[in-house]
């Protein structure tokens, strides 16, 4: 009985060694390679406004700026576009005997630019403002200054492009000012420059009015002309 038991154990051990040897000597019998391909062209479709408080929000509010409810965006088509610019509302204010600083009512006014060219060539956003005038043009807020300051640049989290640059701007005449500038290989994708502040009292967008210039019961309006070019500074 002892001899048979030992023989059985030895047989099991031998089979195990034979299996390991067979696997170790197995040869590769076939190989293959496959390729994966894609090519891009510049997108030309309209880019809708994104949420200036959270660019990753898939369902931004409508209207995007409650203080500017009739503004759906520019609707500009192309691969380098201004998609949205807020209309700034200062509301009805009291006249005063001295210089006054009035704050915007918009809580999150912003400007949005998209670069879908896929070249990394850079771009430049400038703006210039007209005087604050009455509808007929006979009344002017002489010496008034419109200021945008403390803007914050935002984009979607997954956008790996380096950010463009933004600047504080004061419109005191008709000169053009650089608002955003993307040097080579920066500013790709969609970017917003948002001037967030307190609702109805946003000190990051303000209007300076000199004494003796404002007439009561007159609607004063200024227009900002925005221009986006493919020539970075």
From TrEMBL:
It comes from the Bacteria. Keywords: Signal. Pfam families: WxL. Residues 1-26 form the signal peptide. InterPro entries: WxL_dom (IPR027994). Residues 45-78 are annotated as: Disordered. It comes from Carnobacterium divergens DSM 20623. Residues 29-232 form the WxL domain. The lineage of its organism: Bacteria, Bacillati, Bacillota, Bacilli, Lactobacillales. Residues 64-74 have a biased composition (Low complexity). Coiled coil: none annotated. This is WxL domain-containing protein.
């Amino acid at each position: 009985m002892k001899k048979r038991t030992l023989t059985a154990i030895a047989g099991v051990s031998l089979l195990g060694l034979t299996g390991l040897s067979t696997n170790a000597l197995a040869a590769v019998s076939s190989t293959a390679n496959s390729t994966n391909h894609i090519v891009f062209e510049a997108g030309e479709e309209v880019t809708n406004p994104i949420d200036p408080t959270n660019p990753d929000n898939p369902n931004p509010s409508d209207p995007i700026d409650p203080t500017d409810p009739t503004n759906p965006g520019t609707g500009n088509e192309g691969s380098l576009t201004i998609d949205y610019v807020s209309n700034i509302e200062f509301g009805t204010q009291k006249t005063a005997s001295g210089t006054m600083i009035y704050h915007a009512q918009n809580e999150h006014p912003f400007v949005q630019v998209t670069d879908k060219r896929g070249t990394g060539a850079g771009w430049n956003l400038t703006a210039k403002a007209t005087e604050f005038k009455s509808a007929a043009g006979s009344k002017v807020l002489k010496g008034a200054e419109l200021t945008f300051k403390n803007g914050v640049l935002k984009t979607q989290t997954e956008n790996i492009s380096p950010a463009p640059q933004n600047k504080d701007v004061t419109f005191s005449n008709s000169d053009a000012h650089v608002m955003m500038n993307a040097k080579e290989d920066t500013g790709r994708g969609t970017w917003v420059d948002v001037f967030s502040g307190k609702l109805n009292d946003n000190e990051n967008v303000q209007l300076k009015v000199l004494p003796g210039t404002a007439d009561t019961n007159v609607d004063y309006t200024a227009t900002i002309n925005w221009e986006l070019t493919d020539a970075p500074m």
